[in-house]
Amino acid sequence: MAAAAAVAIPTADADWTVVRRRGRRLGNAPSTACHPAAPPPLPVTPIPWAPSDSSLDPARVSRLVARAHAAISRVEASRFYRRLLLPDSPLRRRLLLEPVRLSLLGVGSFESCPAARLQLALAALLRRDLLPDAASADLFDPVLSAVECAAAAELGFSVPSLDDGCRRRVKEPTLFYMPHCEASLYDALLAANWDSPAQLRRVCVLGNSFRWYALQAEYDRSGPATKAAHVLAAGRFACEEPVGETGDLDDEDWFTRAFNETSWHFFEVDDDVDLAASIAGGRR
């Protein structure tokens, strides 16, 4: 069932302020296609990074860019994307204050995985249609090859030379698109911006449903979701907006794998909220 609409209100601190809405019933667990079943531990501090495959074939780059453009055209023409960007859609109403940066994190290998190419395509469209012309965009995944980095550059995305394990502290309103990432990655991002409500309000996350992680933690008290303390605590003030119902997705398998159980997360945190206490209380 669709939830009541919500409105974003720009503030003097250049952050995201959203009116809370009611939730919806969750479906099945999100697909983790194109992502490793057991990811390596996250680096605690940023470490130098280089592509996993350093060979650079210009022909492969050209083919990959062409395939990415085909994916962009496919997503743009989809019922899913048309609904996402309707003038009166919840997303349009919430993003009255435009983000000035987009970060695509954990996309996987978009040369070898069709779902990852569709996720990259959505990021490219969001950058084009939602961000100002001067906005910057980057993408990162430790599995990226040199060919994928070169293709990303041609598509307008920079690739950092450090692996920060998603512990990325923002200085401006930033849209993080993190398709089907592990709970630990969302947790690392939130932890890096957890020191004040004003800081956390600058973060917007498009990724797996935080509500689903909370249900998973209740069902399996020893599972990985129980260790994502910031994700679980954020449920108290995160406004979650599903990207679309199942009927909005194409029937083709890869399209569904790319976008199923994906939600927007805005963080409505009053200035007097003690974020440190919210984590300590959850652990007790």
Describe the structure.
The chain is of the alpha/beta class and 284 residues long. The protein contains eleven helices and eight strands. It has a six-stranded mixed beta sheet with strand order 3-2-5-6-8-7, with helices on both faces. Helix 1 packs across helix 4, helix 1 packs across helix 5 and helix 4 packs across helix 10. The longest helix is centred in the first third of the chain and has 19 residues. The protein is globular. The relative contact order is 0.18.
What is the first-to-last residue Cα distance?
A: 33 Å
Q: What is the share of helical residues?
A: 25-40%
Mean pLDDT: 80
The helix tally amounts to 11
Chain oligomer state: single chain
Largest sheet: 6 strands, mixed
Form type: globular
Query: What spatial order of strands do you see in the largest sheet?
Result: 3-2-5-6-8-7
Computed structural class: alpha/beta
- Nearest-angstrom radius of gyration? 18 Å
Beta-strand content bin: 5-15%
Count of DSSP E strands? 8
Report the uncertain regions.
1-33
**Pattern of helices and strands:** EHHHEHEHEEHHEHHEHEH
